[in-house]
Write a structure and sequence with these properties.
single chain, two-stranded antiparallel ribbon
């Protein structure tokens, strides 16, 4: 990596470092502000962009930090087989070794991966643009650009409205580089690996030996374990690129084929591992069945990529004719990605992971091509003379980054004015600490669903209800818990039997649970008070 850094022109090293720091600072600003606004509360970083999923990641770090190298789906009480998750294993070991909070380790590694990702992008741009100006421009567009989604936020801020009406650049974290950098180490690492794999295909597929191909196969296996959706991206993009390559070569490339076969075998091993978990572990199988992430309408994506779309289209033909192998591959990636978004599979949206990279770079190349065609025209010369051209460029750049700036502002506003479910009150934090230190690892805790989203992240313990995808029978349990158990104060015989039948060991009762209805756990003969502070109480099921 250091040798690659030295490959950067001296005049551009400072630019890269300053811009990378700015991008990473902006992506981290809401987190820094969140900690500063805590004022005795516990900051959770459960903000709108993948907040519930973030708690899942923290739960896995927490579980490993407590000495469990194989992980569990802590968001459901069904029987399960522990599974391997290398990324969260490493982060959990770091948290345990240095006695650090999972959230701190999460963000430190996110920033580290973000720096590596940005460097790889800049290094890629060295292979594409010969002029420093266009490398710098492209780097800023990859790191900061968004679409026109900010102009669609005129309805109430709900999950349903986000997917149905808002531009995808407001919430589609895998499909936008800035949102990826702000989201989690997982998405950043997966895109780093995609760049490494695609770079290897471009540069090394024809030259690599069998050992090198086997090592690349292991990297693909690793990618399949941490983010299996990306195997579809690698297969589709790499497959189309290679098929075009053999068509142009007018012969079948047998040696390359067998190297690709090594990669395919490793990918299938990762897929096989997941099918084993799905079919052998009810908790994992239920998670798989509910993990539906369908694409919104095409218009949402078109708005989400905004000005990048027309310039990407303008850049396709000159990129294919440029003779640059990197531009050629990026064009294939960008085009194939649009088809993957609408594959008839339940995880459509996941296949857009990283597509912002080719969209942004080819869009800049399209801009470069247009500029070369018009820069000597009388209109452009006149606009430059009256300084209007610079103003036009500044407006375009502001529009390009508007949604990215909005996402930062939205998080800051939520943390400042809507603190519920972003911060834990001292009594809530102490309740979670008591659960972590005093109940058995396999105990199951019942609570309202938002509280249930926090509990595993801070305790490493199982909950009955806590995540829309990972809690098996989510809809059924939501009705049972929030419209019956906590909503009413009768049916005690049925409730006692239900708690035993569902394997629930503890009931968490705080402000969120009280708002659901009239249930009073203090008078129930089947519940025993074991801890209480302020508005929060914990009961053991007798």
């Amino acid at each position: 990596m250091l040798r690659w850094f030295k490959d950067l022109p001296r005049s551009e090293r400072r630019f890269f470092i300053i811009c990378a720091i700015v991008v990473l600072f902006l992506s981290t600003l809401p987190v820094l502000t969140g900690f500063m606004l805590a004022h005795g509360q516990i900051y959770t970083d459960r903000v709108y962009l993948g907040g519930a999923d973030k708690m899942v990641y923290l739960s896995q770090i927490e579980e490993v930090s407590q000495g469990h190298w194989l992980l569990h789906n802590l968001y459901t009480a069904e029987r399960q087989i522990p599974y391997l998750s290398p990324l969260w294993l490493v982060l959990g070991l770091l948290a345990g070794l240095f006695k650090l909070a999972p959230l701190l380790v999460f963000h430190l590694v996110r920033i580290l991966f973000g720096a590596i990702f940005l460097f790889l992008v800049y290094y890629l741009l060295l292979k594409i643009f010969t002029e420093s100006f266009w490398r710098k421009t492209s780097f800023l567009i990859v790191g900061l650009s968004s679409g026109l989604g900010v102009f669609t936020v005129f309805r109430p801020w709900t999950d349903a409205n986000m997917v149905r009406y808002f531009g995808s650049d407001i919430w589609f974290s895998e499909g936008n580089s800035f949102l990826t950098l702000a989201h989690s180490p997982l998405f950043i690492l997966s895109q780093i690996i995609l760049l490494v794999i695609f770079g290897w295909l471009i540069n090394r597929l024809s030259k690599a030996g069998w050992l090198e191909s086997a090592l690349m196969g292991l990297l693909i296996f690793f990618l399949g374990i941490i983010h299996p959706y990306d195997l579809v991206i690698v297969g589709a993009v790499g497959g189309v690129w290679w098929l075009v390559k053999i068509i142009l070569a007018k012969r079948f490339l047998w040696r390359e084929f067998f190297k690709l076969l090594i990669l395919l075998i490793n990918a299938l091993l990762a897929v096989g591992y997941f099918f084993y978990l799905i079919n052998s572990s009810p908790a994992f199988g239920g998670w798989f069945d509910q993990n539906i992430t369908l694409s919104p309408g095409l218009i949402n994506y078109l708005i989400g990529y905004g000005l990048l779309v027309p310039f990407f289209i303008l850049g396709v033909k000159p990129a294919l004719k440029s003779g640059n192998k990197y531009l050629y591959f990026l064009t294939v990636w960008g085009a194939v990605a649009w088809f993957l978004l609408f594959l008839p599979l339940p995880s459509q949206r996941r296949f857009g992971n990283g597509m912002h990279i080719p969209m942004a770079i080819i869009a800049v190349y399209g801009t470069y091509w247009v500029w070369q065609s018009i820069k000597n025209s009388r209109v452009i010369i006149y606009l430059q003379k009256i300084f209007v051209w610079q103003t036009i460029l500044q407006i375009i750049f502001f529009v390009l980054i508007s949604s990215s700036l909005f996402s930062v502002g939205a998080k800051l506003a939520m943390q400042s004015y809507y603190q519920k479910n972003i911060y834990l009150q001292p009594s809530e934090a102490n309740a979670l600490l008591w659960l972590k230190n005093n109940i058995d690892k396999n105990s199951v805790i019942l609570s309202e669903h938002l509280v249930g989203n926090f509990i595993p992240a801070f305790t490493g313990r199982f909950v009955y209800l806590g995540h829309g995808h990972q809690t098996n029978r989510w809809s059924e349990k939501m009705v049972k818990v929030e419209q019956w158990f906590f909503a009413t104060n009768n049916d005690d015989a049925q409730k006692s039997s239900w708690l035993m039948a569902e394997g629930i060991d503890y009931v968490y009762f705080g402000l969120n649970e009280k708002t659901l209805g009239s249930f009073d756990p203090f008078v129930k003969p089947y519940l025993s008070l074991v801890w209480q502070q302020g508005e929060v109480a914990i009961f053991k099921v007798k």
